[in-house]
Amino acid sequence: MAAGRVDPMTLSTVWHSFQSICKEMRHVIDRTSQNYLIAQLHDVSVGIWDGTGRTVAIPIGLSVQYLGGKLSVEYVLNKFKGNLNPGDVILVNDPYHGYCCHLPDWGFYRPVFYRDELLFFTLCRAHQMDTGGSYPGGYFPNAYDIHAEGLAIPGIKVMEGDK
Predict the structure, then answer these.
(1) What is the pTM of this model?
(2) In order of start, what are the domains of the chain with their CATH numbers?
């Protein structure tokens, strides 16, 4: 990027617009979720990263869920290099491949394109009630390995081209 002078009013407008988009994303999830942990306890975080993984906007949320967002977006970029298209949605919950906190924190990544150029990623990471582990509810403090906590998803496309 070429260094240039940015008008403070433009910077403020763009910055607050990105923050508003994130707040609206979170509001829609709160209003439509049927998961008690998400809808009532607000165990959800959203954010926007640029096409290289740099953080653009993160409003209120659970900081532990999105502080590793840069690493998560870089993982998705590397895993799906050359295979990201408009309308794709990628699901990752494996802490060893995608940098979520633990298996019940599912992250949904959506690349945002403009004129065939990847500009941004949106990420919604939320706590699922049960991930299929050996103990119902997703919390198993006596787990002997990560598989006892539930299903580990190292990154799959759950939607391709909006389908």
Answers:
(1) 0.85
(2) 18-159 (3.30.450)
